[in-house]
Automatic annotation (TrEMBL):
Alphabetically ordered keywords of this record: Membrane, Transmembrane, Transmembrane helix
Origin: domain of life: Bacteria
Keyword Transmembrane in record: yes
The keyword Membrane is assigned to this record: yes
Transmembrane portions of the chain: 15-33, 132-148, 155-176, 182-201, 208-232, 252-271, 310-328, 348-370
Pfam family, one: YibE_F
Protein's organism: Paraliobacillus ryukyuensis
Record-given protein name: Putative membrane protein
Amino acid sequence: MATLIDWLKNINHRFWWIIGGLTVLFIASLIFVTHNAMFYQQPIAQIVKITDETQTEVADEHQNQDIVYTQHIVAKLKNGVQKGKALTLTNEYSESRAYHPKLTVGQDVFVSVDSNDSGQLKGDITDVKRDQALLIVSWIFIMVLLAVGKKQGLYAMISLAVNAVIITLAIDMYIATSNISLLLIMSGAVILITVLSLVFISGFQAQTYAAAVSTLLGTFVLLFITMFVLWLTDEQGIRFEEMAFLSRPPQAIFMAGVLIGALGAVMDIGVSMSTSLFSLYEQNNAISNKDLKASGIEIGKDIMGAMTNILFFAYVSGTIPSLLLYLMNDATVGFTFSMNLSLELTRALAGGIGIVLTIPIGLYTTIYFIHRKRVKA
């Protein structure tokens, strides 16, 4: 017991100040999102009672069976001129929960309000208010990131927020100015994201420059290779039908997705190569370029397979619902896979090319910067 007390006393007081501050922020933000209905223009109602729930078995022409539940709900408005008044709602959800969720007492929902001939309020549910759940998940992510990464975790969190803002602004710019290609806008965003992320996390040092150069070279080389292959094959086998609802050229949008999707994996390879080789140099300044190359190749072999698999599963996993939807409605396997996997597999293959190419690019780029550091030393 005494040992535990001594250990707690020796912990930096700043650590406890940070933990205390984050705890206060968490509680304050949770209270805010629980009582922030006044800041929404759309009516919000809290479910106070579920009066009845019926169920009906249904089946479609392909004999896919499901159960549809109908909930009759009494809710109380939390904002607007009719705040505090009760209204009746109806919610339908299926056993599969494919569209509407099952609602419970105490949940907040977005509604559209109407009144009947007797003056009683009724309405329709448009969406579920999920900011509490999103806040809790976000705080868990922040706490884990700070606990594991500490100061670097904080930098990574800020960098992630900045990158999200950059991508959002890039998309808004494309929507506002339709005469500029999305691929061109995203190319600028990729350069900005790479430089800001690496400099912010690692600072202005030689290994940061090596990682940034190798990341940008690997990303744009894979982009040009993908564009060349699609041009050479006249885009045969690529199904752009899933983007048919867009009023913009799907090819440019697809290539912009390839660029952004591969950036994370390529950046990870570039950073891993740069950090590992510079660590070897710092431990032994007399290490030869031959040994650095041999070590870099081994490092690349170790991370190449894992990163390629991660990229493949990340892309393909998003198509599972669409695959099930097609197959359950008697679509053929060939048609289902060609419609849903052609774009995702192309993105995964393009990212894999970028990962493989970034290994030698990162290797020789890092050795170049190490050589410069040797000369200055």
